[in-house]
Amino acid sequence: MLLDRCSCTDMYEALLLSIVKGHQEISEAILRHATYNSIRGKLNKLLDSEVFPNIGSEDSQFSSDINPLILAAQYNRFEIVQLLLMRGERIQKPHNYYCVCNSCRSKLALDQLRFRRFRLDTYKGLASEAYLSLSSRDPILTAFQLAKELRLVANMEKHFKNEYNELANKLSNYVVQLLDRVRGNNELELVLNKTGKKSYVEEYELLARLKLGIDYSEKKFVAHPFCQQKLVDIWYSDLREQAETGWLMFLVFITLLLFIYPILALIFIILPDSKVGQFLRKPCIKLFGSVYSYFVFLGLVVLLSLTERPSDEDTMSTEGIVYKWYQMYRENVTIQRTFTGSTTSLYPLPEDFHIRPHTPTGIAIVALVWVVGYLWQECKQMFERGFRCYFCDIYNILDTAMVLAYITAFALKFLCMAKVISLNNLGPVFPRQRMCYSS
């Protein structure tokens, strides 16, 4: 009876006040009244218009821009939020900060402070625990995306930077609270293995959600004890007992693995699906293999540098045709100095000198195979993670640059060797040198 005698303004004020005070019955009665349907229709039209909504009275204690759903979400009134969502109401996400649509330009021209406050109030409603839990099919993913968006907006909204950062941190804490409610290993696997950035895709991959948390820089989520425990279980797998036997036994295990790893790697290449292959696929063993391989490669590089140094046996005079060309060039330079009146030089060309070996050695070929293997590894990672995601990591850029530098060095080395070998296979006099000499 009282609601029938109330005006739209008074009913709207009563609804907002009942939401703040937490009176669910009163709010439900107002929402079911026929008068509220007209208020809702008027409010929806004003939200899409080029002016600010103004339904409440001028002396109202609430902002004229706020609506019941945003207010209920800000106060985490779960029952009222659920009731409003069941009626089809949603919080519309604010437009992009640099949006130039007619609505944004008109509201920004009318009142900049009011426009920015309305954006902040809307984000407060979107970032509330009640709205996220009841409106999203995947609250963790939605919280990740919204937190990233809020941090980007904080860098642009300088005057409300602290408020937006607080909302982003609130979302990070909300995700951690959701993770605290996990009751067993099966539930934890479902949470951490959920894949896809689309919340309606029900696909699962090992630690897909944890990798997504790393991409979104959600440190609290990644550092949660449940996530760390799961990582340790996957890391050691069946070798947890060996890792916890003490440092002496663990050192013996690593030493034994150090000597037999080449044999295990050879078996893995021949029989990748055997028990040895399954053993080498364990994450801790894969790390050991990567470190082992890298130190072997460094040893090959050191040996390659030592074996390719100029020796006493390898001199220019032993090169045959190339040495004759060098002698002709040396004599030609001497003749040119004679014509110019200068027969001496601070840096005279020597008659003979020591040279590096110009044929590929076995160590060089093995090191090249290692470099090709590193290139294949980086290409595989790029294919699995995607081109854009791969180069977002600075360490992947460093690895790619290192591999490309090795490939360039080996390519130039073998190119020089090939040119020397091809020169030795030519005739007794090179035409260009003959022409230079005869002149």
Give a written overview of the molecule.
- The protein is mostly helical and 439 residues long.
- It has 23 helices and no strands.
- The longest helix has 31 residues, at 394-424.
- The N and C termini lie far apart (119 Å).
How many beta strands in the DSSP annotation? 0
Helix content: 55-70%
Structural class: mainly alpha
Mean pLDDT score: 80
- State Rg: 37 Å
Profile the largest sheet.
none
Low-confidence stretches: 427-439
Amount of beta strand:
under 5%
The rounded distance between the terminal residues' Cα atoms is 119 Å
Topology of helices and strands:
Elements (H helix, E strand, L loop, with lengths): L7 H14 L2 H8 L2 H14 L20 H7 L3 H9 L15 H9 L1 H15 L2 H7 L3 H18 L4 H20 L4 H8 L15 H8 L3 H4 L2 H12 L3 H4 L3 H24 L4 H6 L2 H25 L13 H20 L21 H24 L1 H4 L3 H31 L6 H8 L1
Helix pairs in contact: 1-2, 2-5, 4-5, 4-7, 5-8, 6-7, 9-10, 18-20, 19-23, 20-22
